[in-house]
Design a protein that fits this description.
Elements: E1 32-36, E2 40-43, H1 44-57, E3 63-66, E4 72-76, E5 89-97, E6 102-107, H2 111-122, E7 129-133
Helix pairs in contact: 1-2
Length: 137
């Protein structure tokens, strides 16, 4: 799964998800893509599940680009622990996704196969997405 090799700080503040994506909101590499319509924290497991779904569908043909990277450590306290005693240990890595962000791109495959692969991957994601083509954006 994806995670940073090295970070400056072990734990990060939650932050706020406001507005729409200003970067990464257009198709840059492939011909087809998945665009987020909602905001969320996309975990490394969810990204990996969508990637596996796409690559299996296209049977090693074409190319898949992952346009988001989980660089936010999300901490969690253990179950049945009393309040206090500091912040919990980092539990998983997440990518902050804003509406309009392109999550995955695909190229080198025909249209019907690409749409089938991307719609399968979209079912693995926790938010509403739409499949876009390079000519649309």
């Amino acid at each position: 799964m994806l995670s940073p090799k090295k970070t400056r700080y072990r734990k990060m503040m939650k932050g706020r998800m406001k507005g729409v994506a200003t970067s990464g909101d257009y198709i840059a590499f492939g011909n087809f893509g998945i665009q987020a319509l909602e905001q969320c924290w996309l975990t490394a497991r969810q990204i990996e599940a969508a990637r596996i779904c796409m690559t299996r569908k296209i049977k090693r043909g074409g190319r898949v680009w992952i346009r988001v990277f989980p660089d936010k450590p999300v901490s969690k306290k253990p179950a049945e622990t009393r309040m206090g005693k500091g912040k919990g240990a980092p539990e998983f890595w997440a990518a902050v996704v804003l509406p309009g962000r392109i999550l995955f791109e695909m190229g080198g495959v025909e249209r019907n196969l690409a749409i089938a692969a991307l719609s399968g991957a979209a079912q693995k994601l926790p938010i509403k997405v739409k499949i876009v083509e390079a000519s649309e954006i």
